[in-house]
Amino acid sequence: MKPKSFLRKVGFGLRPDEKIPKDPLNWAKSQMNSVPNLIWPGKIYSEQEMLDIRVDFTTQEDKIQKTEKNPATAKVKKNKLYRSSGRRYFESYELAIRHHQAVYGNQPVFERFWHFWGNHFTIIDKNKLATFNTGAMQREQLRTLMTGRFADMVYDMTLTWPMIKSLDNFKSRGPNSEFNVNRRRKNKPEKGLNENHGRELLELHTISPNAGYTQDDVINTANIMTGWGFIGGRKGVEAKKIGYQGSLHEPGTHTVLGKKYKTIGFSAKTKGKNQLRDLVEDLCKSAECRRFISWKLCRHFICDDPKPEMIKMVTDAWENSKGMLPQIHQAVIEATWKFGKSNDKFLSPETWLIQIARMTGADWPGDPKIFEYDFKSKLNYKQKKIKYILAELGHLPFRAKQPNGFPDTKDEWLSQEYLVRRIALINNPIQIGLYRNSLPLIDISKKVVKQNFDEPEKFLKFLNSLELKNEQSKSLISILCSRKVLKA
Amino acid sequence: MRISRRLFLAGSTSLILTAPVLSKAIASNKRKNNLVIIMLRGGMDGLTAVPYIGNNILTKARPDIGVNKPVQITADFALHPMLKNYKSLWDQGQASIFHASSIPYTGRSHFEGQYLMESGGTQPYFDKTGWVGRALEGAGIKGLSISLPMPLILRGGNDLDSFMPSKNKLPNDSTLQLLQNDYKEDKMLWEVLSTIRKRPIAMMEPKSRSDRDMKGLAKIAAQQLSDPTGPSVAIFDIGGFDTHADQGGDNGEHAKKLKQFDDVIGTLRKQMGQTFNNTIVASLTEFGRTMSQNGGSGTEHGYGTAILMAGGLLPKSRIISDWPGLEQKNLFEGRDLNSSIDARSVYASILARVLESDHQKIVKDAFFNSDLPDMTKRIFL
Lengths: 488, 381
Hints:
The complex is a heterodimer of chains A (488) and B (381).
Chain A: H1 3-10, H2 24-29, H3 47-67, H4 71-85, H5 90-104, H6 108-120, H7 129-132, H8 134-142, H9 150-158, H10 161-166, H11 178-185, H12 196-206, H13 215-225, E1 228-231, E2 241-244, E3 254-256, E4 259-261, H14 274-285, H15 287-301, H16 308-321, H17 325-339, H18 349-360, H19 381-393, H20 410-413, H21 416-427, H22 441-452, H23 457-466, H24 472-480, H25 483-486
Antiparallel strand pairs in A: 1-2, 3-4
Helix pairs in contact in A: 3-4, 5-18, 5-19, 9-14, 12-13, 15-16, 15-17, 16-17, 22-24
Chain B: H1 5-16, H2 24-28, E1 34-40, H3 46-49, H4 57-61, E2 71-72, E3 78-79, H5 84-91, E4 95-102, H6 110-119, H7 131-139, E5 143-145, E6 160-162, H8 173-182, H9 187-197, H10 201-204, H11 214-226, E7 233-238, H12 253-272, E8 279-285, E9 305-310, E10 318-320, E11 341-342, H13 343-354, H14 359-366, H15 376-380
Helix pairs in contact in B: 8-9, 11-12, 13-14
């Protein structure tokens, strides 16, 4: 396909000073072999640190709720806690790291795939996960899994803290587990199975309903997953570790899609632990999984309704590499290069926002220094605007409401109100870091067209016709909200 | 720059060139009827919203999440205590419940189920339009979604808008006109922008934060529906009914969500005034939940649920149901409240009443001529 369109289809477009790669296809493919370092110069909090901060916060908040009877004092105390714990700070901070990487990094194609997988393994917006945990987990775990096998990615993502928290598996217990047998003996009510995570492992993360599994398969997947949950919590304090407890596991062999999963080992503590790994391996080996994930990747990068020949390139690479992600990603890139059409894919709000920031050279998401925080003051506008703007556009990436994540087609992303939000944002370009003292907006618009349009002539002619009048912001809107830039 | 009236008129002039659709009500000078669909995502538990109290079978199956203070409305059924506004409509003869009903989907997947509750079909991810959209297309009536996206349920209609209050301002219409020219080669973009340009001024004005909560949105919907030239159908979207854990009983997660639903109904009732008499509000969800509680004091994905209706178009308050019972043998697959009627029958009859059409025509326009019994008599006589 045409090189400049391709760069926006798999990446974020060219910065004003960036040279077009001589061999765009190999430029993109080579980005898949290694995990780029984060270029954010500020502090990077580890996932464990964020978990510590979170648990500290939830413990203290809980305490205020339980002990402080006077609502006014409780509010003051909570507000102080919100500041000292960064309750309102961390999500913006994570988003800034993510956008800084996408706008200024040198492996933008890798970042696009990272964003894709973050949405594939959605952590839903609940329990303050977006505030403290989702971003750090994606940075530290998901990102580093992208050069390995898909099966390993699924297994590890299944057992991340936010995933276990959001899909309730920590509450699921085998009906005949040691735990429930003891409860029955003591005449206490049983605490049974929770199907939530098992169902989504099949439906969303691996094989999709097209695989034709039944309710029994869902129940048995949930049985296999029993035992995996939090370990080491205390009363009133959230546990920080994910682990396996044999006493909660539903004993015996469980059958999923006709295959029997047996338990290995004799130790009561670890018996049954192998079943989840065995199941994930089989799910990821199946043709349904290959087809579903390959289709989803093609839909994300190429077009809303990917054709069989596009999907086949990816499923072939999957089979040949035995599910290695770099090869799968490279096949997606090749399929885009071979079959992709210019302006065929309507971009999600976040991808569009990052593209316009990168292409205009805007000061986005802002100087990393402004994101330094003393954990005492009120956040200033610059610190929270990235979150505010993404919320306005309807696309806060850590806040999908349901575990199927954000949608990925034009029908879903194009409505009156979504479009209003995008046009209104560019109508006030200071918000995205295009200041009055930077280049005249019309020059910025021209630069975007020259650098990123395969056929710039018509648009340049139009922009030249505007120049005489005082129509700076009009020029910017007419380019950044044009059909060509909304789509890739 | 804010859109001025002059520019707004310029916008609507260009609209007339694009085959405007006059509402039937204006054409015939009649009062228009309104339909409000409140989508409850995640699987609304009909047995929590409208618990069966005929015997203690339900409380036994739900020791930790039972409704302890049910508000009795008939010998066998009660309302959840959070449904205060709904209860007052019940007392005024403006609330009816169709119990033990579901869309014809038993796969227990949210995403397939939500697709079907909106598309009105039977094959997930297949139909690209929604049942309300198709019905509106046939009737030539405007629809409004109070949400950022254009939900599937409204797609297929030809005079639709989606709306959420925002502080940000659009540029003047001459800039939008430039974009309109650019969108010529993309029909969907072109149509979406056309609708934006003909929006009434009230919708163009920057809104404050309080306009964005559920009550604020309900106010906006009420204004729009009360306007004789405004839309006749409004869609709300409330998520979070998927309570696998800590569902709660009188309070807790499911109760909180029911309160949001009740707030919308209360605000519509208050703000619409007389218009509420020509209105019907109905809930819509992808499935109900299991009869028994699970390991985490929650419930799993089920099947049958309740459709809560309200509004002056209803003749009286009642529970309509061929109650299948909650005994083990009567449960669907031994675990869920069964569905005694395809929910689409109920929605078809509601649409027929609002659009002053007949059930069979709606079934043909909106529901692919499926075999859906006419519920008009049971709901409206």
